[in-house]
Protein: Dihydroxyacetone kinase-like protein
Amino acid sequence: MKKLINNPDEVVKEMISGFLYAYPSYLRKLDNVDVVVRKTSPVDGKVGLVSGGGSGHEPAHAGYVGKGMLDAACLGAVFTSPTPDQIYEAIRAVDGGKGVLLIIKNYTGDVMNFEMAKEMAEMDGIKVLEVIVDDDVAVENSTYTQGRRGIAGTIFVHKIAGAKAEEGAELEEVKEVAEKVIKNLRSMGMAFTPCIVPAAGKPSFTLDEDEIEIGIGIHGEPGTHREKIKGAKEIVAELMDKIIIDLPFRDGDEVALMINGLGSTPLSELFIANKEVNEYLLGKNINVYKTYVGEYMTSLEMSGFSISLLKLDEELKSLLDASADTPAFKQFK
Amino acid sequence: MKKLINNPDEVVKEMISGFLYAYPSYLRKLDNVDVVVRKTSPVDGKVGLVSGGGSGHEPAHAGYVGKGMLDAACLGAVFTSPTPDQIYEAIRAVDGGKGVLLIIKNYTGDVMNFEMAKEMAEMDGIKVLEVIVDDDVAVENSTYTQGRRGIAGTIFVHKIAGAKAEEGAELEEVKEVAEKVIKNLRSMGMAFTPCIVPAAGKPSFTLDEDEIEIGIGIHGEPGTHREKIKGAKEIVAELMDKIIIDLPFRDGDEVALMINGLGSTPLSELFIANKEVNEYLLGKNINVYKTYVGEYMTSLEMSGFSISLLKLDEELKSLLDASADTPAFKQFK
Structure:
């Protein structure tokens, strides 16, 4: 295992330290818990947005804390849900009087811990609502999930709910638009190689030199099947066929598109995938309104990528276009 | 070789296509040459900035074309200089009447081709100046270089010269500030694993499972030496010792810092490196004014990273702080 680390057991702690050194004008850490909040938290008169999850998916989620997106991110151990205590502290730190929305990826541990924290905060009189993101169409249940998994499409929920909250909307309205995003969002990924959790020191699974896994999860959970490697065009078509039919996305729809690298796939290859996705969508007369290509939700150094499609209406377009200024997601209106 | 591509010989062409699909509001491609320019080029009354180099370093350089940075990027074949014809077309496309500055990384082929293009454009009556970036302190000469190599610090030249040009400065002034950046800029990198040029299909060199290479170039050119793997703190100290002494950076200096991932090093590990660099600099009483952590100039899927330090004065701070809006580098003032 060749990693740029000091001690496998200190990876999250040291990463947070390096993260705070990089963005002192954006962020601060809460005392004694691995929670990162906006420097200015709580923001008075704004609904607070809290997300988080296991570490190892950087820049998710701490990279999305900032103006126009999240108020707090809770960082669990690598591929492990944050604890209820952590999430509870995050909720308390960002409640500006209008309540807090939790954005949870659908993994059993995450849902359980976020909901426990919600109950704890409600006992303090804080109004808390939640949404659960389950954008991955690959499999219905998996290693860590009942139902579908939440993957990179979650960034669209951060972005759009974040823009709504920034406008001064009420908690119920922010929740409503987050649910609209989730309802219109579909994703799917694939991998060329596994990743290595630092504390484990070896890959959690193996793939042959000519083998890929379709529908894999962001923790290396099994996908739909393995197959021989093939070209970018064929891989994209296989993922898109499953994504498109699921909503379904239809002739004339407008979409936001995210091509998300899982860790070690070069940006040049993600752009080749983007070409293939665009040509696929042109063939279906689906119009791409806005595109994001990069590493938004990774799996350590896994090689592979995911595609996320969000069907847009005028409200979602306007909120997606709003400016955002966070360490990992900056956009001018 | 497991890559997300269709045909090794079509990688650059298809990448550019996917790039243009992603950023139609920022960019357009010139007819018949692999040159990407701002959608609105030429910008009247603004010095044009042209950079470029071999492909395989994405998002460099096409990702930095946009407001506050470059006007054009010339994309060569993977790890191969763009041709004089390409660069000449780029110069012609972005000259807004105030002349054009070429920002060249110091590789023999690049320098030769950019200078030939400069002469061709001068024969058309276009005023062209050039700067050559040679920030890599690792080695004095290398596989593709006479003198020092230009690596990730080049992004600081794009940013600061770009901000100066955006202010309406004259060509000589833009060149002068670019040279000030180069004079105060030092970088060095290391690698855990090699990368695979698609058309070659296999790694250009190998490293043992417990071996790293210090001072490696962004094309896998030899560094200073190989050694057994060690912790992030020790690796950082080895690079920093060489960087710091070279300028030298001194007690009381203010710097901009870039921790640049070479391709497959997880962002979490780059943040651990950032922690170590910050602690190293604290120990020397050198103050970090602004930090950039991410993949700015990659080597396909190479695992490793580089550190760039730029010594700042008030002028450089102000230009570094200016807003920028390009596909790969966005910053609010």
